[in-house]
Automatic annotation (TrEMBL):
ANK repeats lie at residues 416-448. Its EC number is 3.5.1.2. InterPro entries: Ankyrin_rpt (IPR002110), Ankyrin_rpt-contain_sf (IPR036770), Beta-lactam/transpept-like (IPR012338), Glutaminase (IPR015868). One of its GO terms (molecular function) is glutaminase activity. It comes from Streptosporangium nondiastaticum. This is Glutaminase. Belongs to the glutaminase family. NCBIfam families: Gln_ase. Keywords: Acetylation, ANK repeat, Hydrolase. It catalyses: L-glutamine + H2O = L-glutamate + NH4(+). Pfam families: Ank_2, Glutaminase.
Length: 475
């Protein structure tokens, strides 16, 4: 599904049984799950609506600047912006510049690391590269106490990954092996290669050469490593090109334990993906990784091209591309899209574990009322209303505003006909009552016992609220 509107045929298109079988041969699983109501995101149109709204809101954010240290990246149109999503069962949607190619840059480090794990296993790989956050910039000239790169998600660690991939092949075959893997992850569409970015990066790579020589001095590389060939290979991997649609499918392949949802190709083992997602969670956004893990709580990897790959395990992959970067080298809009998604949906790793999902009870905190994309529309709507009523009873105006932004109707009623206005009036939360009335909520809703918010305010002795509600009812 794309961002534009398709022109519908004037007459219905009728297919024979043989034609239908032919055109759906690669989508039968998705069609069967849709017919049974068992899709990964049952209310996919609601997710699409939210992504369209978020794209519209975030596109106005023009903070940050393109990466200037690689000349070719500095020339990219900074205002381009794409969001693409693919679920683990193949539901897809894209909006914005989703068919424009961009270089993977540091996002390539995820697949390079997975390939080393598949070939050598974690014990061998981690004799040459650590697995702890560095707390430093992505190209910082620093190593752990053993003289190894801190992790595979920064430059030094990715150079080490390139030293481990298919050491017995020549340079062309090694690159083809990596490019073919990206193609498989992305559903079979061929990836590109930006030679001008590769040449530009190689000519401005003094820091990466310094990292390579420093690792060689420390004896970090496997014996017989050709340092210059390894660095060339690293620059080539960073210069692989995809678009947001391909990157979203690749992210969904990781969310699906290494199996591409479009082709059912088992590209990586579940064990490999588990290790990769663990390090993406702790190290995927350079020296912003800790804050991202705290706020967003999902595995992700960013690149200085403005790409951000987000993985929601067992649910979906999301790709965001916007070239303007913050001080840490992460896409400004990419981070903001992630924030807004986690505000609306309980996809943070610990939302469900700690009871911060929809319908959480007293003491649930700021996460109460988030919608669960795994639920059908009716169930999700009901739990959103429960979260709204709870927030109103607590006077949590920030949460009410957030729920309103997530399209929870402020005048909705629960099973007993109680509204947020009933609860706020009963508990004496003046600011909440004022907000709800200013938002156009009906001041005279009647619950199953015939009671109104005015009755609740009078019964609880909140005379100032009773006057406010009485005045609103007369308007």
């Amino acid at each position: 599904m794309g961002s534009g509107s398709a022109q519908l045929p004037a007459q219905p298109l009728l297919l024979t049984a043989e034609e239908f079988s032919a055109v759906t041969q690669f989508n039968r699983g998705l069609i069967e799950r849709a017919a049974r109501g068992e899709l990964a995101v049952p209310d996919f149109p609601a997710l699409v609506d939210d992504l369209q709204r978020i794209h519209q809101e975030v596109r106005a954010d023009r903070r940050g600047a393109v990466a200037a240290y690689i000349p070719q990246l500095a020339r990219v149109d900074a205002d381009q912006f794409a969001i693409s999503v693919c679920t683990v069962d193949g539901q897809r949607f894209s909006i914005g510049d989703a068919d424009v190619n961009f270089c993977l840059q540091s996002v390539s480090k995820t697949v390079s690391y997975c390939l080393t794990l598949e070939e050598h296993g974690p014990d061998t790989v981690h004799r040459h590269v650590g697995r702890e956050p560095s707390g430093q910039g992505f190209n910082e000239l620093t190593f752990n106490k053993a003289g190894l790169p801190h992790n595979p998600m920064i430059n030094a660690g990715a150079i080490m990954s390139c030293a481990l991939i298919r050491r017995g092949l020549d340079a062309a075959d090694r690159f083809d092996y990596v490019a073919e893997t990206w193609k498989r992850l992305a559903g079979g569409r061929s990836v590109g290669f930006n030679n001008s970015v590769y040449l530009s990066e190689r000519s401005t790579a003094d820091r990466n050469f310094a990292l390579g020589y420093s690792m060689r001095e420390r004896g970090a590389f496997p014996p017989g490593t050709d340092l210059l060939a390894t660095l060339e290979f690293y620059f080539q991997c960073c210069s692989i090109e995809v678009d947001a649609q391909q990157l979203a499918v690749a992210a969904a392949s990781l969310a699906n334990a290494g199996v591409c949802p479009l082709t059912e190709d088992p590209v990586f083992s579940a064990r490999t993906v588990r290790h990769c997602l663990s390090l993406m969670s702790s190290c995927g956004l350079y020296d912003f990784s800790g804050e991202f893990a705290f706020t967003i709580g999902l595995p992700a990897k960013s690149g200085v091209s403005g790409a951000l790959m987000l993985v929601v395990p067992q649910l979906m992959g999301i790709a965001i591309w916007s070239p303007r970067l913050d001080a840490q080298g992460n896409s400004v809009r990419g981070i903001e899209v992630c924030r807004r998604l986690v505000d609306c949906y309980n996809i943070h790793t610990y939302d469900l574990l700690t009871g911060l999902g929809p319908g959480a009870g007293a003491g649930a905190g700021a996460g109460a009322g988030k919608r669960d994309p795994r639920l059908k529309r009716q169930q999700s709507a009901i739990e959103g209303i429960v979260g709204l009523c709870f927030a109103a009873s607590q006077g949590d105006l920030n949460e009410i505003r957030r729920l309103a932004a997530c399209n929870v109707p402020l005048g909705a009623t629960d099973y007993d006909g109680r509204t947020a206005l009933h609860l706020a009036a009963a508990e004496g939360h003046r600011e909440t009552v004022e907000f709800l009335l200013s938002a156009g909520v009906d001041p005279k809703p009647v619950d199953r016992w015939g009671g109104t918010p005015l009755d609740d305010a009078n019964r609880a002795g909140h005379r100032h609220l009773a006057r406010l509600l009485a005045d609103a009812a007369r308007l």
